[in-house]
Structure formats: C-alpha cells, structure tokens
Amino acid sequence: MNIQTVSYLKANANNLSLDDPLHVTQNGKEVYVVQDSQAYYEQQETIALLKLINLSERSLNQKGELSLDEAFDV
Asked: Could you say which protein family the record assigns here (predicted)?
C-alpha cells in the first residue's frame, strides 16, 4: 500500500505513478485515496453491477422466481 502525506502529494502531483492507489494522510490520518481514472471507472462499474445483483436477489426473495416468458416479457 502506497501511503504518503498531503505535502508529498502537493510537491509531486505532476510526477505521480498511480499503478496502485495512493493513500494520502494528513496529521497521521488517511484523508484521501488517489487512483488512476481507469481504475476508478472500473470500480464504479463493479459497484453498479453489485447493486443490480443485490436488487435482483431482493426481488427474487420478495416475488419469487419468474418463468422465462415472464423474465423476458418486454
């Protein structure tokens, strides 16, 4: 895990390598995580997919299973 201070981030912002997320601390506490934009968007897509799975599981538990015809009824 790459941990640096806010001062380090300010001084090296133009030269950061974000192969791994950079955990930024201030006064000894982690306050930011800086990561590559591609990794951020992949993370957001993963979260969205997990939310869809969760909603599907809740719907299944509340309404029961659907037949194939019901599932693909447009």
From this structure: Belongs to the phD/YefM antitoxin family.
